[in-house]
Amino acid sequence: MNAVVYARFSSHRQGEQSIEGQVAEAERFAAAHGLTIVKVYADRAQTGRNDNREQFQLMLSDAAKHAFDALIVWKTDRIGRNKEEIALNKYHLKKNGVKIYYVAEAIPDTPEGIILEAVIEGMAAYYSEQLSQNVRRGLRMCAQKAQSTGGTHLLGYTVDENKKYVIDPQHAPTVRLIFDMYAQGKTIIEIVRELNARGLRTKKGNLFTKNSLHRMMKNKKYIGTYEYNGEVCIENAVPPIVDVETFNKVQELLKYNQAAAAHKKAKVDYLLTEKLFCGKCGTMMVGVCGTSKTKARYHYYMCTLQKKKQCTKKAVRQAWIENLVLEYVIKLVQDEALLEYIAENTYQYYLAQNTDTSYTKSLQKALEETEKAISNLLRAIEAGIFNESTKDRMNELEAQKTDLKAALAAAKLKEDMGLKKEHIVFFLKQFADMDYSDIACQKRLIKTFINSVFVYDDKVVLTFNYSGDRRTMTLKEIDGGLQQGIRIPLYFF
After folding, report:
1. Percent of the chain clearing pLDDT 90 (strictly above)
2. Tens digit of pLDDT for each residue in 12-50?
3. If pLDDT is split at 50, 70 and 90, which confidence band does 396 have?
4. Is the N end or the C end of the chain the one with fewer CB atoms within 10 Å?
5. Which of 371, 394, 417 is the last residue of a domain?
6. 110: Cβ–Cβ under 8 A, 6 or more apart, which residues?
7. CB of 17 closer than 8 Å to CB of 399
8. Same domain, 206 and 249
9. Residues 162 and 60 in one domain
């Protein structure tokens, strides 16, 4: 099986060796599991709190082209530390037939493993938030002084040695032109075309786009007000470029135009995507939208083969089937005895997958080899062999030693402490007190607990992720009675 490696280190940990260390462990993992690494994607000094990373996006693009079969990452948080981003990225990878392997987290490929993975994702989000609090504290201190907090600076401003905003005489006239044209009634597209036609460019020298203009026209720094994250607001803290009257007129026009655009396109979430299957042919059912003669919009799930006229299964109403599934999932999470059973099964799977100490031993061996290399290099230095290459190699080995010691400490801590059953119980029981009308809550319920839903002409079969089976159920297995499910009469409409 062809595999690729994705590695990154965050901007708060300035160590190139973090990348090399992750790749080295991925290579050991691949060798142990019969995988062939064909490419490595690496983002250096990139945060994991969003997935706007160049190499990460390239990896997703290559996955869509079916360029590889498996992805090897260090831990779940390499994919992202936000639950929604992790879920979306894994969905895209799974959709393109890519299997994900985690080097430092053993997650079984079972229904229990899905629950375990959700627990680990939650813990990753917690640690990410802890880390970001420290970063935000430093940024907040800069904001309270009306200083730049880093990142791409606003068009029309530069930052002096004290991190204070000062007007950029080269680009400030462009800012005034943008605000004046929008206030006069020109559209964003018209303004972009005018700017690019005049040869005007962004601060980075690129062509203007409608997205860049939307963001900048909402920024109050242009009228002298410094705002940060809804926590800091200091008036007259920045030299203004645009007059208040023009700025306020632009804000009113932006609100009006955005409200009109939002009315035209309303996003619809199909909660059972990749979970719902046709009871006639076993093919996945997908969300579709239709319009009646009265222009009313209706949302359905339709068999993908029915769309090609190769299956006769009728479409089912989205609201009906989703409400039906949610009803039974909610009953499940409110059953304490059943949650205890699920937690015990999940924990036993975790123990079975995490008793192997080969990973810790491989780290220990790598550390010993690194320390030996350092000793050899020190002997060479003592013998009078010292140049720029020797210095670079010593720095590289010392960085490698630091990273390996950190990884070894984390691995030993995991072996000593690890995930407790209480962690899983706590995670599962939180579902009992959630707001079931919230769409984000509904998504989590279905993702965590639903294995598959089969819709027949006369019944619906639900299978849950505590069954003990290793994959999504197939129609043949369902019809053959190999998997017990909850059967509900189908209501005709």
Report:
1. 19
2. 443 434 678 888 888 988 988 889 999 999 887 554 444
3. confident
4. C
5. 417
6. 349, 468, 469, 470
7. yes
8. yes
9. no
167 pLDDT band, cuts 50/70/90, is very high
Check whether residue 428 and residue 402 sit in a common domain. Answer: no
Q: If we measure between CA atoms, which residue out of 115, 108, 113 comes closest to residue 339? A: 115
Please report whether residue 123 resides in a domain: no
Question: Which of 45, 80, 105 is the last residue in one of the domains?
Answer: 105
Angle at 133 between CA 127 and CA 137, to 5 degrees: 160
* Residue 55 forms part of a structural domain: yes
CATH code for position 31: 3.40.50.1390
Q: Positive or negative CA dihedral for 330, 333, 334, 338?
A: positive
The least confident of 221-225, 257-261, 462-466 is 257-261
Q: Which domain holds residue 285?
A: 276-337+424-489
- What's the structural domain count of the chain? 4
43 and 159, same domain (yes or no): no
CB 377 within 8 Å of CB 390: yes
Mean pLDDT of the chain: 78
> What is the model's pTM?
0.41
At 259, which CATH number? 3.90.1750.20
In a domain, 485, yes or no: yes
